[in-house]
Amino acid sequence: MAQKVLAEVKTGVTALRDRTGATPTLAVVLVGDFPASRIYIATKKKMAAEVGIASRDFLYPGGLSQPDLLALLRRLNADPAVHGILLQLPLPQECDEDEAIEAIAPLKDVDGFHPTNLGHLLAGTPTVIPCTPAGVMEILDHYGVELKGAEAVVVGRSRIVGKPLAQLLLARHATVTMCHTRTRDLAAHTRRAEVLCVAAGRPQVITGEMVREGAVVVDVGINRLESGKLVGDVEFDLVSKCARAITPVPGGVGPMTVAMLMKNTLQAARRHLGAV
Ligand code: NAD
Asked: What is the pTM assigned to this prediction?
């Protein structure tokens, strides 16, 4: 599926270049030395190159002061040759993440984390949709999962996954329950779910007996065990026996997230070049 989205983006990039002469360009900003972030960025840049999107690096592994980070983001906002800005999270503790996200021009915010873009999502007039929730919706649509009237349960309420995903499901007429660390009886909720989306960042938080027979399970979690093995939030072996469908980790939502980032970048370039 991710390959299919990427192929569409590649075609779109070529068409846009033929029409306007411009190459969609993504500015990649990394502050601080996070090994996982370095891997994520390398994957995103590789994918960008494959679909013909140019990337420009602004890497500060030794850190960057908040005023300097804000100045850099404003410079990128004003640069007509930059169509999308990817601010890799997390930022070091001394930086203010909210302020940095707000400093990005909403139409260059290809992650869709800016309050303006999240507000549009809430208002039902989506502009830029956060990549991971967008990828989850693509997966559900691709497999023809009926959402209208369905019991959907989202575990996790982060700004980047749980909350926007719940809004997208709601917009598609699912009956949505959101669960989090203060939820009293998690299993009571998850057992009702026809569509269960899990983004808790806790290995095996969802076990076999917590899933309804025939449910569709989307596992967003990515956890590295001490052994080095990568696992999701769902106990895959047992849950896959009762679920109708389940996404694997690695290889499920992750590649879709990167593909949606490319799609958002192309969309941002189209908007800036007046080619929507
Ligand atoms: P986060 O830590 O910001 O949020 C986790 C949420 O899960 C919180 O709202 C918390 O209340 C809830 N939660 C934690 N433990 C819980 C429990 N035991 N029961 C119920 N709720 C619980 O994390 P995030 O940024 O939303 O990411 C979640 C997971 O998804 C992580 O593993 C992350 O690596 C992964 N992730 C994957 C992709 C991808 O492309 N596949 C993208 C983003 C995040």
From this structure: 0.96
